[in-house]
Amino acid sequence: MVFSMWGSKKDSQNGSDDAPPPDDRPSSRREYNRREPDERSRLLPPLSRPPNSDGYLDPDDPAVSPYNLWSVRFFRFFTVLFLIVTFLWWVLLLVSIFVSPPGMHSRGSGFFDFSYTCLAIGNLLVAVLFFSSPAKAMRVTTAVIAVLLLIDMIIILAVPRIRVEEGWVGIASVVWAAVIASWCVLTDRVVAWGKKEEEERLTGRPETRRTLKEWLAVLTATIISIVFIFIVMLMTATLGIRANDTSLEMYGERIFVDGNKYQVHLACVGNVSSTHGKRNPTIILEAGEAPSEYDFEHWAYSSYKNGTISRYCYWDRPGYAWSDSAPSPHSAGMSADALSEALARSGEEGPWILVSAGIGSITSRIFSSRHLRDVVGIMLVDPMHEDLLHRIASPGRGFKLWAWGVISPLGIERLGGVLFKGRTREDRVYGRSAYQGGKYIKAQLQENLVADSLTKNEVVLARTIQSSNTPLVIVSSGIKCQTDNEWERKQKDLTSLTDKLLSWDVVDKAPHQVWNTLDGRTIMEKRLGLLVKAAGEIQLPM
Q1: Cβ-proximal residues to 273 (8 Å cutoff; 6+ apart), any chain
Q2: Where exactly are the structural domains of the chain?
Q3: What pLDDT is stored for residue 441 in this prediction?
Q4: C-beta neighbour count of 169 within 10 angstroms
Q5: Which Pfam families match (predicted)?
Q6: Where are the alpha helices (DSSP H) in 466-517?
Q7: Residue 112 near residue 170 (C-beta atoms within 8 A)
Q8: Burial of 460 per CB tally in 10 Å (0-12, 13-18, 19+)
């Protein structure tokens, strides 16, 4: 017995016929080793010892993954690639808010295209972070986002004014956002298919259970997508309001300026007249912190109807009311040049009397210094002094304006005004709600960025070359002068802007918008008449 066992072992070691040779393997295993592996190859050889008695892998095995399929890897690669491309576009749009790259100037606010790109990045991030946890809820919510973006795209393309304001940058951004949303739906569907295929191949059945981690991933992704739906719904409603506002008729015309990069709104009331062979001056209105049409132009119309003046023109600085946004950066001197070009293209000629208020007085003073022969009078209503420009140039104010601009496409205040306060198109375009518009916010941001640098240098230079014999009238706010000693000192300093100061009035109980009080309007009209009379002494012949 012992000998037999020893002999068997020895025979085995000597390669007797009782044991197969080492290279003698079943044909199925030889075929398995020779066959080029692909995504359908089993992970274990047929004769290898399987982890389960039925020959399938455990569902929790890491090898059970949709990443085994090249199609799933393909979609993941391009999803990451699209995320990188979209991020670079996002950075470019962010920079263009502050400095417009060549060919990328938006005549609108520029905040809508930025918001669409943020939405595209959000969808791609959700797709990448929760790539291996596909869910029907994700596909449904993302499909809703894609449909809403398609509606936005139709609105932008169908409404001529919005299409012009958004330009190719805005159109490309909304189209890209819609394509990305559709891509995310397709990607989630492919991953779900790949997950099912691999589970059937490697475990014998599709897995219907989810781990706690997977449930949390699906819940988080779905909540984020629902938030995105509400965001797009608000943006769509805001676009609808913008489309409705474009039907509001305007008085005057839009005129291309700055090499036809954008248009500004200019309107004139009254006819050109003359007295004793001399052309009567045309009043040029320059509003302050709000569009001219809101209330500043109203008192000028009353003066026209009363016969105090025979003709006046008003315009909207870039970004205000019906005017387009200008490329960034944009200073007060650039606004003065835009006004000069608009007047020239519309055939308007001097002499001019400049009437301005608040921050608009900076633009008027620069305009005056660049048209010394044509400007025959200056009237400043509670004007901003160049030494106080730092008040509107603070970094904190700039950041708030930028943040407010970024969320302006949601139109929360505008929608609330329509639903609960009865705000009209007039309110939103040039009235009490004009400050909520993206163009207005961008104009304020542009003023903030260069107020204490480029704009200040321009107005300081303008003061040095201002003609000393130009008649000057200043009307100041009593409330501002009483509550702000520095403002009062600077108002007094502006009285020495020329050597021909006709009057300086501080209107008691009048706010910064002096014309909002009866006393303010009365004094302003009276002083304007005095200015017209004084300007007649230096009129240019027709």
Answers
A1: 279, 280, 310, 311
A2: 66-245, 253-392+436-538
A3: 96
A4: 22
A5: DUF2417
A6: 478-483, 485-494
A7: yes
A8: exposed
> Going by C-beta distance under 8 Å and a sequence separation of 6 or more, which residues neighbour residue 83?
121, 124, 125, 128
Distance, in Å, from the CA atom of 78 to the CA atom of 372, rounded to the nearest integer, reads 61
Output phi, psi for 520, to 5 deg.
-65, -45
Q: How far is the C-alpha of 535 from the C-alpha of 305, rounded, in Å?
A: 20
As a whole number of angstroms, the distance between CA 111 and CA 116 comes to 9
Q: At a CB cut-off of 8 Å and minimum separation 6, what does 539 contact?
A: 278, 279, 280, 281, 351, 376
Token look-up 């008003």 returns 314
Question: Torsions phi, psi of 314, nearest 5?
Answer: -135, 155
For residue 324, which phi and psi values (nearest 5 degrees)?
-75, 165
Q: Which residues contact 123 (CB under 8 A, 6 or more apart)?
A: 142, 145, 177, 180, 181, 184, 228
As given in the structure block, the two tokens for residue 46 are: 């047929």
The rounded distance, in Å, linking the Cα atoms of 464 and 470 is: 14
Sorted by sequence, the CB contacts under 8 Å of residue 340 that are 6+ apart come out as 367, 370, 371
Q: What are the CA-CA distances from residue 415 to residues 239, 382, 411, 499 (Å)?
A: 11, 33, 6, 51
Report mean pLDDT in 10-residue bins for the chain, 542 residues. 39 45 49 56 50 60 75 93 97 95 91 96 95 90 96 96 95 97 95 82 74 89 96 96 94 95 95 81 94 90 93 96 95 97 93 96 96 94 96 95 95 93 93 93 96 96 94 96 95 95 94 95 95 76 41
Residue 193 burial class via C-beta count within 10 angstroms: exposed 0-12, middle 13-18, buried 19 and up: middle
The one-character DSSP state at 511 is: -
d(CA 26, CA 31): 9
Place of tokens 């918008």: 513
Sign of CA dihedral 95, 97, 102, 103: positive
CA distance 385 to 362: 8
224: closest CA among 312, 141, 157? 141
Structure tokens at 209: 């259970």
Counting every residue, how long is the chain? 542
- Cα torsion 112, 324, 244, 111 to 10°: value is 10
Q: Is 6 exposed, middle or buried (0-12, 13-18, 19+ CB in 10 A)?
A: exposed
Q: Is the dihedral of CA 121, 124, 126, 130 positive or negative?
A: negative
C-alpha closest to that of 332 among 343, 322, 319: 319
CATH of domain 253-392+436-538: 3.40.50.1820
C-alpha span between 342 and 327 (Å, rounded): 17
What tokens does 125 get? 């991030």
